[in-house]
Design goal:
6-stranded mixed sheet; 13 strands; 4-stranded mixed sheet; Hypothetical protein af1432; about 500 residues; Nucleotidyltransferase, domain 5; alpha/beta
Length: about 500
Amino acid sequence: MNARMNAQSNDRVAVIDVGSNSVRLVAFDGAARSPAYFFNEKVLAGLGAGLGQSGHLHPEGRRRAMAALRRFAALLERLRPARVMTIATAAVRDAADGPEFCAQVLAETGLELTVASGPEEGRLSAQGVLLGWPEAEGMVCDIGGASLELAQISGGQVLAAETAPLGPLPLMEFEGAPRALRQRIKRDMARLRSNFSGPVPRLFLVGGSWRAVARLDMARRNYPLHVLHEYERPTADILRIANWISHQEPAHLATLTDTSLERLRLLPTAALVLKQLLDALAPGTVAFSSYGIREGMLYEAMPPDVRALDPLIEACRYTESQNARFPGFGDALFDWLQNLFGDLPADDLRLMRAACLLHDTTWRAHPDYRADMCFEAVTRANMGGVDHAGRLFLAVANRARYKNDGSAVDDHPAIALLPAERVKLATSIGRAMRLGAMLGGAHPDTLPDTELQLKAGQLRLVLRGGAQELMGEVVERRLNGLNTALGLDLPAMLDIQAKD
């Protein structure tokens, strides 16, 4: 089986993650290069609450965790994944009764928990970041309920990983003045930082507490694109939001976000940690990752040839295979557009390929709403390997593929995040996709005898041999629409040629 077939495998992979604060079951729809979440459920059990003082798992947290794991075992019997992976992290690792808990889980559910070391936990979280950002450079910080892990990534590899007891649960139990707590966090963070050398161009934040920080920052900024993954901000901005959160009551934070109150109770303490983290690492920028330890375990299950694939392109290719009228046309359309756009930078060509693969995936929607539904679907899609500007570029291109009038896109608040010249380029690509799709009915076999040309400032559509039968009023109208989008002064031409 080749890499692409492996990348779109339908064999489900399940991961059970027993953390210090939450217990979660995630079932991925195959070990795909871009994760597809078939099932996702979590319980904020709080296993690690009070661990610093008692040395044992929290009794009520243990009861809730066991109840969740019994349910997860029953669900697995029905989901029947091809593979089940488990991991237990800091609370189970550090608690005196951790081995006893694992034995109870095995006896009552048949699930054998794999207890990860701190560095192993950090390595897996960093692999989750690499699943979404294959070329990521910098540091990954994963915060759980009881611990914090740092890992350094470069060249598609995890170079090193370390851990420290800097999760909010043990810090909230600290018996001392606030100043003493801050000093302790600073000392532990400095020790952690001493294990890594060099500057940090980018810091990737993993974990529920960090995602809650991102949600609050979005709410305070009225940020129009509500996608946590690859939300990126200057370090100074994240420092400001961390400082603000550290002085807020959880009840007030709850008025600004739908994050659970259980999570928000941890957030002011987590914000203290974040401030010291930013001070110690001094990263160039800060990015939030929705991918972490569970995705890192999925990444580990992938064959090397699948890991080498582009997560964005594979996600779009899979979407095309499931939803397009004629899967395979996206690649044909991309090739057809090379005469117009082949000189674009590699990053833009990558986005154009992704747009072509997605161009026909909302065709079942009502025609009156298809363009806007396409825009929303693309901006909110579960895709790795694309930042927010890239998402918007894809959304504008695919909306322009469905609708000639760009006013609705111009009015969308998220468009302000994309420079005007990028909107123009995406619109031009969308108009070209619109022409190609209409010309051949979105079937791969209809484009070989047609060609788009741009010579001496004039756009020309060449139809050879039997392709001349495809000529019609709608084709001419869409050719003229593309000409307008490209800003050309000369009128577009139809060139009908006899087939050699």
